[in-house]
């Protein structure tokens, strides 16, 4: 009886809430009325399924061609959503004032629950305070000091591949190896620890949780509850009660998610405790082995030295460990995998980089930081691959207040007139199309979608410099820009160049029998076309089998 009353109450509440969400749209003027846009295929989910579809490559290119840098679409229950890649608009969103646009409420909440109060889940003054302590920790000076660690891990990868080749292996899942090498480099360079991730017989639980997390979070069964229910229930009762509810709910994948979160949290806690002399994050002594500096040690020391008002609490420090490790893993592994893929597509360029790297390696010693970062062809290939195949093609922000987004030029409105700015109501979702900006032909020319590393070997066209793209990296949006830009992009660049230079000096990569295709799973990821191999979730397995042989064979 009690159960049926509760269900009735829940159904009534849900119906009332949906009705209110729909009706209020009819009574409020639509600030995006002038902006042309898509007709949604579904009233409930709007155009979200099209925009976030894993095969939406052509969709994004064709929308960019049809509308230029901005168009309107619909989210859940008719909510207006702005899709934007106009560079002036992006500059405004990313850099004008950090508090005008934040992550969406639901993502901020979900990330806070999963990662704790790290950079991805804090907003406003708390985020600003955290970046103030953390920015210097990720400076070029700190990253430069990590070159030997990065090379150590790359050498171990290379030895492992060589050993297996000598035992007769010729095909390797390079996505798996890239994830392993990135996790291990992060472990040693950033966390001052090891996960033994290059041991191919082990599957470190931290790696499994971190790499599967986005896949599970984006299961359709979680999207509605995350958007519609989580905000209302996340603060009900004490934490133990919410945990008990999660434990007793007969929902298999929720338990999978719970176990991932537990693994991430417990591993980060262990790492933090092992580094601190005590458990009190404010007063703890920071212990390191006096050897090579790692970022966590530097961060803990910087935190101890920070003023009382800027200091991060233990839960914030814990949140940073999980956030950084998560932020580093799938993105960098995607970029490395795409680089290998693109060099299999272009074996002549692969050969030229091998030559460049081998020349720089003369004397057999690892390449010094400045020389490595500025190897011209390797640099051009890395930049072009990020531009054309942006690992994180879309991010979503939300306006916090009424504002007006300026545009780089007038656009044609739905009624044939033009508009040069867009008024935005609070809580409007903005799809920030990083990839579309990187591939915009108005900026990069008619061949914008072609992979041409040589464009970086000569001065960039005026259209690129004049666009004043707000990205922190090389006139592109791949690492975003402004106060919320990727904090680890210099580390990612070092890691990518170390691993690529070493691998290419020793191995030749080519496609095997199986065709590789790429999916937009939030982060771009490879898999085999028409393969029926499934992963633990019953989904097509993410993988990139490549043929690998020794250069000196
Ligand atoms: C190829 C590699 C990478 C790519 C393409 C990438 C891309 C991005 C992008 C686009 C953002 C902005 C996300 C948003 O605002 O929603 C971001 C944020 C972030 N990234 Fe990266 N990232 C990469 C590697 C790394 C690495 C190696 C680390 C850590 C060592 C890292 C840590 C973070 C963190 C902590 C944030 C949140 C920054 C903040 O909000 O203040 N990322 N990254």
TrEMBL record:
> Which SUPFAM superfamilies does its entry note?
Cytochrome P450
Q: Give the GO molecular function terms.
A: heme binding; iron ion binding; monooxygenase activity; oxidoreductase activity, acting on paired donors, with incorporation or reduction of molecular oxygen
Does this UniProt record's set of keywords contain Oxidoreductase? yes
Pfam hit, one: p450
Protein's pathway? Secondary metabolite biosynthesis; terpenoid biosynthesis
The cofactor required is:
heme
**Where would you say this protein principally sits, based on its record?**
membrane
Q: Does the keyword Heme feature in the UniProt annotation? A: yes
State the UniProt keywords alphabetically.
Answer: Heme, Iron, Membrane, Metal-binding, Monooxygenase, Oxidoreductase, Transmembrane, Transmembrane helix
| Residues the record lists as binding heme | 486
Q: Where in the cell is it found?
A: Membrane
GO cellular component: a single term? membrane
Q: Family assignment? A: Belongs to the cytochrome P450 family.
From the Swiss-Prot or TrEMBL record, give the protein name: Cytochrome P450
Which species expresses this protein natively?
Ephemerocybe angulata
């Amino acid at each position: 009886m009690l159960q049926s009353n509760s269900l009735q109450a829940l159904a009534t509440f849900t119906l009332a809430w949906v009705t209110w969400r729909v009706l209020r749209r009819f009574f409020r003027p639509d600030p995006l009325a002038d902006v042309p846009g898509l007709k949604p295929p579904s009233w409930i989910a709007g155009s979200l399924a099209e925009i976030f579809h894993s095969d939406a490559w052509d969709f994004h290119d064709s929308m960019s061609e049809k509308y230029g840098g901005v168009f309107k679409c619909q989210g859940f229950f008719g909510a207006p959503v702005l899709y934007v890649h106009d560079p002036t608009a992006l500059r405004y969103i990313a850099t004008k004032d950090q508090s005008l646009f934040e992550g969406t409420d639901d993502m901020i909440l979900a990330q806070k629950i999963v990662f704790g109060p790290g950079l991805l889940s804090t907003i406003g003054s708390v985020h600003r305070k955290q970046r103030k302590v953390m920015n210097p920790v990720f400076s070029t000076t700190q990253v430069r000091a990590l070159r030997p660690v990065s090379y150590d891990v790359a050498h171990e990868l290379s030895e492992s591949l060589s050993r297996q080749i000598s035992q007769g292996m010729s095909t390797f899942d390079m996505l798996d190896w890239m994830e392993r090498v990135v996790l291990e480099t992060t472990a040693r360079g950033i966390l001052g620890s090891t996960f033994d991730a290059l041991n191919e017989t082990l599957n470190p639980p931290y790696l499994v949780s971190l790499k599967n997390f986005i896949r599970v979070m984006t299961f359709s069964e979680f999207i509605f509850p995350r958007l519609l229910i989580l905000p209302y229930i996340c603060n009900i009762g004490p934490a133990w009660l919410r945990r008990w509810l999660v434990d007793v709910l007969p929902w298999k994948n929720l338990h999978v998610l719970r176990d991932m979160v537990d693994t991430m949290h417990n591993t980060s806690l262990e790492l933090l405790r092992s580094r601190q002399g005590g458990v009190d994050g404010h007063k703890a002594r920071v212990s390191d082995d006096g050897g090579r500096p790692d970022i966590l040690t530097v961060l803990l020391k910087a935190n101890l030295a920070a003023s009382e008002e800027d200091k991060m609490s233990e839960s914030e420090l814990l949140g940073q460990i999980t956030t950084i490790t998560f932020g580093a893993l799938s993105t960098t592994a995607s970029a490395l995998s795409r680089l290998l893929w693109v060099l299999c597509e272009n074996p002549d360029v692969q050969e030229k980089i091998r030559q460049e790297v081998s020349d720089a390696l003369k004397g057999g010693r690892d390449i010094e930081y400045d020389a490595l970062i500025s190897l011209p062809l390797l640099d051009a290939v890395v930049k072009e691959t990020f531009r054309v195949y942006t690992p994180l093609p879309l991010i979503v922000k939300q306006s916090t207040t009424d504002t007006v987004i300026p545009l780089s030029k007038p656009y044609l409105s739905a009624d044939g007139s033009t508009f040069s700015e867009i008024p935005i109501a609070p809580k409007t979702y903005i799809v920030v199309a990083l990839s579309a900006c990187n591939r915009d032909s108005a900026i990069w020319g008619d061949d914008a979608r072609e992979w041409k590393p040589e464009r970086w070997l000569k001065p960039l066209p005026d259209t690129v410099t004049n666009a004043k793209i707000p990205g922190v990296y090389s006139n592109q949006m791949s690492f975003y820009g402004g106060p919320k830009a990727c904090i680890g992009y210099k580390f990612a660049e070092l890691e990518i160049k170390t691993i690529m230079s070493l691998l290419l000096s020793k191995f030749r990569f080519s496609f095997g029998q199986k065709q590789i295709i790429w999916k937009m799973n939030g982060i771009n990821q490879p898999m085999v076309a028409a393969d029926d191999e499934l992963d633990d979730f019953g989904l097509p397995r993410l993988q990139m089998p490549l043929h690998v042989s020794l250069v000196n064979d």
